[in-house]
Structures are given as structure tokens and as C-alpha cells.
From TrEMBL, chains A, B:
Keywords, ordered alphabetically: Membrane, Sugar transport, Transmembrane, Transmembrane helix, Transport
Species whose genome carries this gene: Lutibacter aestuarii
Keyword Endoplasmic reticulum set for record: no
Protein name per Swiss-Prot or TrEMBL: SemiSWEET family sugar transporter
SMART domains the record matches: CTNS
Location(s), subcellular: Membrane
Membrane-spanning segments: 6-24, 36-54, 60-80
The UniProt record lists the keyword Acyltransferase: no
Length: 85, 85
């Protein structure tokens, strides 16, 4: 049986990853990115790549999958920000 | 001696937490929050609170500290977004 706290961790990973979907959708749909901070997403993206390395080290599928998806979403926001600024 | 991968994890935690500082600064300084997605930060904040619970369960000081700080920064962005929208 899966530990209750492991479910909390999986739900946490799901929420902090999927949170970026409405932000990508909004930036793509409205082309409005002026209040987005480019330094935030650059620092965040580098951090996510390090979490991914750490996830591979821990052999944690949840960490690997969620950080790959979050990394793609952060990269999309960086591209949209540079394109529309 | 601390494992190299533990350092990677600590740097990752530092970067994904501190990334929100330039975003909070920008939103506070410019009062511009229209391209920020409120659903993103609400979902993200709930996710961070679950990571915090998971961090307490794992007795991971790095997870506890970084998620408390990230939670405060996300909450500040939610307040600024609601205030200036």
C-alpha cells in the first residue's frame, strides 16, 4: 500500500508542475508577457534542470517526469517572453 | 563529506526558490501584474503547501525552508495580483 505522505508528494508534484499550464496558455493566447520576469524564468529553468539531475540520481520517476514537464513549460514562457517583449 | 548530488539538490532548491524574488520585485515595483496568471499562483501555492507537509514528513530541512520561503513569495504575488488587477 502506498504511504499517505507519498500521495501528498505526488499531488504536490502534480500541482506545482500543472500550475504553469494556465500561465503558458495566458501568455500564448494574449501575447501579453510584460509583467513576466525573464530573470525569474531563467533562474527557475536552471534550477529545474538541477532538480532533474538530482531526480535521476535518486531514481525518482515522479521527480524526473515532473521536472521534464516543468522545464518544458518554463522554456515555453522564456520563448514567449523574448518573442513578445 | 557531503555527496556531490546533495549539493546539486541544495543549489536546485536555492535557484527554484530565489527565482521568484525578481518576479515579486517586478510586480511590486511596476504594479504591473496583468500578464501574471492568478490560477497559476493559486495552484502553485497549494502545491507548495503540500511539498511543505511532505518535507516535514521526510524531516528534510532543505525542503521545509525552501518551501516556506517559496510559499511566502507565491502568496505575495497572489496579493499583488488581486490588489492591482
Amino acid at each position: 500500500m502506498i504511504d499517505t505522505f507519498e500521495i501528498v508528494g505526488l499531488v504536490a508534484a502534480f500541482l506545482t508542475t500543472s500550475a504553469f499550464v494556465p500561465q503558458v496558455y495566458k501568455a500564448w493566447k494574449t501575447k501579453s508577457t510584460e509583467s513576466l520576469s525573464l530573470p525569474m524564468y531563467l533562474i527557475f529553468f536552471i534550477g529545474i534542470m538541477l532538480w532533474l539531475i538530482y531526480g535521476f540520481h535518486l531514481n525518482s520517476l515522479a521527480m524526473i517526469v515532473s521536472n521534464i514537464i516543468t522545464g518544458i513549460l518554463a522554456l515555453l514562457l522564456i520563448i514567449l517572453k523574448i518573442k513578445h517583449q
